[in-house]
Every structure is written in structure tokens, then in C-alpha cells.
């Protein structure tokens, strides 16, 4: 996606499409990304998110904040502040939370269109409430059709990964080894229900699509 697509929301221009190797390593990528990742609490729901600009806009999943107007946002340094749900797209399972006036590093945005099968990636978030957790894996498939938003929803192309994703990871970033966000961790395949946990099949909304949705939400907010 061209950088102009992100400009209306004041987002940083995305980096060049990722190479197959990612160029970096998991430690460097984790260090670069962790300051921008947050934990989100909306009633009994728990999830993750990440800052997408310097204006206090946080990307997360719709299902993390569904039905909530206000949420609690725990920053990487442990501070807990109030946030407002600016808007969401239930069909795409993408939402934007706003925490204006709060100093937080924004994540570097990548380009999901250039992802390759077998490329190393990391998932960052708060699985089971364990904030700032990093797991590693690869891109298992690109453009994998997966249903979002419940029964009757249109199946959408997703990034499939074997990086460990569990309840609480939803809304957190999937990134390449240069720390550039390429997807929004959203769902997992399970056997015998969600309580079975991760079985090595997770899905992320491609960042190209997610940022287009976020830009529309912010422009309309």
C-alpha cells in the first residue's frame, strides 16, 4: 500500500515491503516494538493493542472493545490510563482507541503485501493477562480465508502464523524481524473450544487493510 494511504491519519509512512529474512533478529525486533504495545481492559474483556501514531491512537480488535465506550489502557511502563473507543469495524474486527495527551512510542508500520511464506515473525501482547509477552514463529500462509465477527460474516484473507497466540493477544501486533508491524493478531484455530489454547494456527489481519480501516475511523472521529 502506498504511503499516501496512511497520510490522512497522520501515520508514519510504512517501510519498504519486508524481505524474506526480515533482516533483524527477535531480540532487536522485540526491543523496538515493546514500548508501543499496550494491554486493554474493557469490562471483563482483555486484549492488546499498539500505538499507530504520535497522537494517542491505539489499534486493537473490535471484539476486545465491543460494547464499551471507555476502556483501561495499561502502557508498557505499567501506567494505567483511561481511553475512549473512537470507533470500530465489526466485520473486519478492527477498532481504534484514543488516549490523547499520553506519551507513548508509536510502532513502525510495515507492508503486509510483501510477506512471504516461511518469513520469521513475532507476536507481542498480553496473553492470559501476561503483559509484554513476545512469541516467535513464521508466516505459515498469506491470504488464508478466515471468518471474522461471528456467524454469517464474510471470510477475509488473513495472515496465518504459528507464533503462539492465546486469549489476550487479540489486537496486538504481528511484526517482522525489523520490528515493523505487518498484522493485527486476531484469532486462533482450536480443537475442542477456546480452552484448548494455541495449537499453532493463528490469524492476523494484514496491516495494509487494518490501517486503511483505522484511517477512516480516525477521519470520522
Please identify which CATH superfamily of the largest domain we are dealing with.
Answer: Trypsin-like serine proteases
Helix content: 10-25%
Query: How many H/I helical runs?
Result: 3
The biggest beta sheet is recorded as: 6 strands, antiparallel, barrel
- Rg, rounded, reads 15 Å
Keywords: Hydrolase, Protease
Family: Belongs to the peptidase S1C family.
Pfam families: Trypsin_2
Biased composition (Low complexity): 1-20
Report on the structure:
Keywords: Hydrolase, Protease. It holds the Pfam family Trypsin_2. GO terms for molecular function: serine-type endopeptidase activity. It comes from Gordonia mangrovi. The structure is a single chain. The two termini are 23 Å apart. The chain is 12% helix and 38% strand. It folds into 2 domains: 35-105, Trypsin-like serine proteases (Thrombin, subunit H); 119-216, Thrombin, subunit H (Beta Barrel). The strands form 2 sheets. A 6-stranded antiparallel barrel has the order 1-2-3-6-5-4. The longest helix has 14 residues, at 207-220. The chain is mainly β.
